[in-house]
Amino acid sequence: MQQPTLQAVPTTQLPNAPVDTRASRLDEHVTLFQSEHQKLMELDSEIQVLREQRKALLAQIPPAKERREELRQGRINQLMGGEVSLEAAREYRELGELLEDAKAATTLSESQEKRLAMPLYQAQLAVNSAQSMVAGGYESYLDHKVMPSILNALKKRLAELAALTHAKATIMGQEGARKWAQNELAHALKEAMSGEQVALDGDKPAAREVLATSTRPQAADLLTLCNSPGKRQCLQRELGE
Prior knowledge:
Keywords: Coiled coil. Residues 33-60 form a coiled coil. The chain is an all-alpha fold. It has a domain at 19-142 and 204-238. The protein has helices at 19-80, 86-115, 117-194, 205-212, 229-238. Helix 1 (19-80) packs antiparallel against helix 2. The mean pLDDT is 89.
């Protein structure tokens, strides 16, 4: 199942909301994401435990079947020779019980896993929603808190660039000079972004960490049981809910 592209959810704050309010709202969104993500990971871990237990259980079945068949052939040979081994008969019976129990345990484990499919689906929806809220809050915070101070620091240099652009305009015209300046700025920014990254003053590293966190659980295959109303209804009927 492909993880959906992250969509930034716009914050409900007014355009002139105080920066402190934007920062506190962003912190709240980050905390919410961390809480929801922990719930998702706990469910995913529970499913992985069931799968590992089932894997270990299923690994015991082939050798048990092989041993039981050996005992059956041995018992046939013994009976033909007029002999009976009570010890072999007991082992044969116990292996049969083990295989039946293993089958029942596997069925129960698979049922328990399916019962976790819907909670896992709902948990991922909550995590994706919280992550989108962080994206929206972080974007608003950067636009209103971080960007203004950077642009203010650039104003003097931009004024000098504007003067240079006016000078170039006497040669190539206003439109040509404007495009030239934009290209030069884009090239300079590209070089700066490919160079050594400096710390962003006023940044929110926790928000960046949230946006870099995958919301796809290891048991993502279970989500296909719930990704449409019809599938959810079928699952609920199967589980008797």
